């Protein structure tokens, strides 16, 4: 099976792998404009040079109670819109081979929807997440 | 040689350039199709592509006034339609003939662009060659003659890159300015920065214009098109256009052009009934069409409403069933909305006869396809017998709007200026805020409306700090208005609005996002969305809306003065013609020389009347003025000013009444002011009036008796010519001998009966004389 580049990051205190095809860039987010009444996962809007991106609080998107203080974000484009997905830390970009989740593993909360499989780094299994599944309401509106 | 097309330079120029560029582009793309069709004439897809091309050319020509192209395109379209219907087989002769026409269209388009003349000989032959059974024509090799053009077509991607580069530049300038102002700043640097700011600002405007265009570009050709289309069908239609200054992405404007034209033609052709039918249905004879554009949420809504017969859904079903596309039972089982949507079914026209206006197979399905292509949608609102409203929702990819920036808590939001009626302070005079059963309402002067607090609506912290009184922004939201209480009103800015992500739009209260010069993103509020989310219910107002919209489209009536005339009849006179109404004494009126005259203001003014003065001592007169001419019209009494309806039943014969209008249920005769002037104005011969030379007037009869008649009729009269003068006509007494004359002659005869061959006029036949003079002068082409 062919290997694919993955970005290893820490989200909600857990290490995850993100398919590098989904990653446009990695940035530090400046001031964020709140979007009142939007879903909890929508932190707000931020300017990335001349582009406005929707900042997504990944912890909230995963259905966790926490509220990340992270300012670092992975920029991804979904259906023509750009999102900044907040991540706690970024570790590395490495090629891995995608493996299916072992049978019987029940992930909690929204982790289940976001999970696409796992990769193995020095014997440590890392969950592969699909950023599109973490973007709030996009599925709801389509 | 004739000019390639009789188009007008001016505002249509842009459109013409677009048309040329578009036709050229389509032709280039089509050349492959044409070759393919040639080798495989039964290829339906190729046939459709060529058909669409000629159809589009025909449509565009209609409103660009290019009759020559239109004729060619129409002829080709006819033939291709026959092929599509299976009425004709595309043999070699037909294919060649169509291709020759397509080539010719290309040549004419190039000639128009070059401003060159192109020989139109041979076009008849091209059209004739399309007929069945005609000889195969030899295809001339097309000669490409292309003139350098002042306009270029660019890819949208390039423009987008330019736009974002520009925005970066603005932000970099702001950053630079911020950093410079931290310390002491050298005046020279300050000046340079100022200049940079100015240039950047101008550049931004220019770059933005490359992408955006007022929707007026789409609307401006409509009045002409509507008039021509309606005239071609013997209908009269009043067009009302609203929201021309809404700005739209050029790309969208391009895409919307054909669908809009098609919908409007359809509305006039199929929707609006013939005048007689409208009358029978109790409608005004003049059909009404309202085209409007407005921004709502993250969409631009283009609405086309007509007050015609609406869509006969049963008829659509019958036609579709008859064509065997779907079973009648299936179709009847559809929901009402789905049934109505059948009008977008390919190859359907709700009218049986094919007319030149709306075309045929290329119908509403193409409209639907174009709108789908840009991610838009169409909403139909059909009231059979009363009208159809088509609302096209175009997604807002990018737009520039003028917005008011308001504050709620610490955050700023933009509200489209277009939806703001006014802004008042809640402490202002004539402003009240009350609680009506727990619901806040605002009373602004005499208007009572619901009140929404932006801070509450946005669920900002209730204990947010407030500085001074709130401001009330009165906004319109579709059917109704409400007051939006905000903490502060900041300023007014032109903003580039882009669509926000679905996660943000899901709230239903935002219309888009923008990045103002501050570099901090800002949200644009959707006033209709806020009303919805705030639970405001305007449905009571909405129920009457359909009728109202049509009603608003009514042509404004004619203000008129209602009066009782001397003969006891109540009449109306258009107010514009009345200078003033005055009371005068009967002693000022004299019956002299066959007509009444009024001495007033030291002058003598002709006095017109219907009826008798009957020994009145005082009377009222209408002073009617038309440029220099003045006539007084005697009346019994002026009553009031009324508004006459747009339609006035015309009088059958010219006379004192131009027609009859319905005023408050009463039939009122409308005075024909022009007729009054025509009958009563004392004519003063103008300098350039035709000169009538009296010849052989030995006994002075002509000069004495005929001269006043001629002068009244607008001739200058002379007994002899001044040097250099030439008469327009010569009036000769019976036996006068004329020398060599350079003018037509009218002779008067003494005998009542004319001899055979005699074209003279009996000397007491005043009407005959004037008629003869006019005919001779007119035959000479006037003077």
Q: Brief overview, please?
A:
The complex is a heterodimer of chains A (142) and B (783). Chain A has four helices and ten strands, in the order βββββαβββαββαα. Chain A has helices at 58-61, 111-114, 131-134, 138-141; strands at residues 4-11, 14-19, 25-28, 42-48, 51-56, 72-78, 81-86, 89-96, 115-121, 124-129.
In total, the number of strands of chain A is 10
How big a fraction of the residues of chain B is strand? 25-35%
Query: What's the total number of strands of chain B?
Result: 34
Number of helices of chain B: 23
Q: Work out the largest interface and the residue count of each chain.
A: A-B, 31 and 33 residues
Per CATH, which architecture of chain A? Answer: Beta Barrel
Radius of gyration of chain B: 35 Å
How far do the termini of chain B sit from each other? 32 Å
Structure description:
The complex is a heterodimer of chains A (142) and B (783). With 142 residues, chain A is mostly beta strands. Chain A has a single domain (4-141), classed as CheA-289, Domain 4 (OB fold (Dihydrolipoamide Acetyltransferase, E2P), Beta Barrel), CATH 2.40.50. Chain A is 11% helix and 46% strand. In chain A, the strands form two sheets. Chain A has a five-stranded mixed beta sheet with strand order 8-1-2-10-9. Chain A has a five-stranded mixed beta sheet with strand order 3-6-7-5-4. In chain B, a hairpin with a 2-residue loop joins β12 (439-444) and β13 (447-453). By secondary structure, chain B is of the alpha+beta class. In chain B, the strands form six sheets. In chain B, strands 19, 20, 21, 22, 23, 24, 25, 26, 27, 28 and 29 form an eleven-stranded mixed beta sheet that branches. Chain B folds into six domains: 12-128, Four Helix Bundle (Hemerythrin (Met), subunit A) (Up-down Bundle); 157-211, Helix Hairpins (Orthogonal Bundle); 216-395, 2-Layer Sandwich (Heat Shock Protein 90), CATH 3.30.565; 399-550, OB fold (Dihydrolipoamide Acetyltransferase, E2P) (Beta Barrel); 558-680, CheA-289, Domain 4 (OB fold (Dihydrolipoamide Acetyltransferase, E2P), Beta Barrel), CATH 2.40.50; 691-779. The relative contact order of chain B is 0.05. Chain B is built from 23 helices and 34 strands. Helices cover 36% and strands 28% of the residues of chain B. The longest helix of chain B is centred in the N-terminal third of the chain and has 28 residues, at 12-39.
